[in-house]
Amino acid sequence: MEQQLWRWRDEGRSIGSLLAIARRMRGLSQTELATMLAVSNANISRIEHGADLRVSTFIEIARALKIEPVLIPKEHLTAVRALLDSISDTRKKDEPLQRPRFD
What we know:
mainly alpha
C-alpha cells in the first residue's frame, strides 16, 4: 500500500520535512518543484530543512504538491485520521474518490 502523508505521525516533524515527504511521494525533485513555483532550488531546500516560511508560501507549495492544508481541532484528529485511513484502504489504487450524494 502506498504511504499516505497523514500516516506520518511523528509529532516532531517540521512542516518542511512533511513537504519534502509529499514532494518525494509525487516523484518530484527539489529542482522540479522550484521550477513549478518559480523560486530557487536553494529556497526549497531551506524550507525542507526547517526554515521559517509564510503561510502563503506553505499553501502555494502544498497546492503544487496536490495537497490541501486543513486545520483540524486536535480533539478530532484521531477520528479524521481514521476516516482518511478507511477511505484510502477501501479505494482501489488510482480509483478516483467519489463524493457522497445527498438526495
